[in-house]
């Protein structure tokens, strides 16, 4: 692929608060070791992957302090700092990893303050462009967690606030506390359980960031995806990403990978346009 060509630009742009990003983004979860735990097998390769993502036109990178934990954020800074002005880095706090198999919620104010400071240090930033509350904690009032992040935003350490893994009710509650510019929920061709949240985001002009956008490959092997892919001369992954782009103008897909070949394949999906009958065929 010609390195002067930026295929991710073909998806157009999206506004996140006062920031403009290209509408195909990069999920940095898989920069870590197996199980989203520890160091990657090829740290230099992970840095090259990030540099290639910038070359391809990705301008929004999504990560979290729990990826590694801490590893994804550190590698992003190693590879890309000082950051180009067009790059928007989003990270998340509110999940902790006491063991490889554990993803425990922690929405306590004292934890969120420490989590934010840790992300700022690892990413070498004084203010994070988009900081997302990773998951509600059933042991902590939701308003208390969001209120803490709103305080940190007023202190100048967060530019914009987002939420993750929330319901419509929780989104409404958060919006009464602070401006919310994004929601990141699980969503893909096979799992549309957050359709109601997506609709709420559309009405409010809030960006919807689907995690698990390819469904860990589950949707890729379906007959309907393969038929459309064959018709369009595309790969199943590209069709699945194109479906997300066509599903709603507020969707910002963040497919992640540890492979430059897959990264380049995903970037080409930005230019793939689904005709109405193709979109209908995918259900």
Annotation, overall tally of beta strands: 11
Please summarize the sheet with the most strands.
7 strands, parallel
Reading off the top of the CATH hierarchy, the class is best stated as: Alpha Beta
Q: End-to-end distance, in Å? A: 32 Å
Structural class: alpha/beta
Q: How many structural domains does the protein architecture include?
A: 1
User: Any low-confidence stretches, pLDDT <50, length ≥5?
Assistant: none
**Overall pLDDT level:** 96
- What's the gyration radius in Å? 18 Å
The tally of helices reads 10
Describe this structure in words.
By secondary structure, the chain is α/β, with parallel strands linked by helices. It has a single domain (10-218, 248-263), classed as Alpha-Beta Barrel (TIM Barrel). It is built from ten helices and eleven strands. The chain has helices spanning 43-56, 71-80, 109-123, 142-154, 168-175, 195-204, 223-232, 236-247, 260-268, 276-281; strands spanning 13-16, 19-22, 26-27, 60-62, 88-93, 95-96, 104-105, 128-133, 158-164, 180-186, 207-211. A seven-stranded parallel sheet has the order 3-4-5-8-9-10-11, covered by helices on one side. Strands 1-2 form a two-stranded antiparallel sheet. The chain has a two-stranded antiparallel sheet with strand order 6-7. Helix 6 links the parallel strand 10 and strand 11 (207-211). The two termini are 32 Å apart. The model has no long low-confidence stretch (mean pLDDT 96).
Write the layout of secondary structure elements.
Layout: E1 13-16, E2 19-22, E3 26-27, H1 43-56, E4 60-62, H2 71-80, E5 88-93, E6 95-96, E7 104-105, H3 109-123, E8 128-133, H4 142-154, E9 158-164, H5 168-175, E10 180-186, H6 195-204, E11 207-211, H7 223-232, H8 236-247, H9 260-268, H10 276-281
Parallel strand pairs: 3-4, 4-5, 5-8, 8-9, 9-10, 10-11
Antiparallel strand pairs: 1-2, 6-7
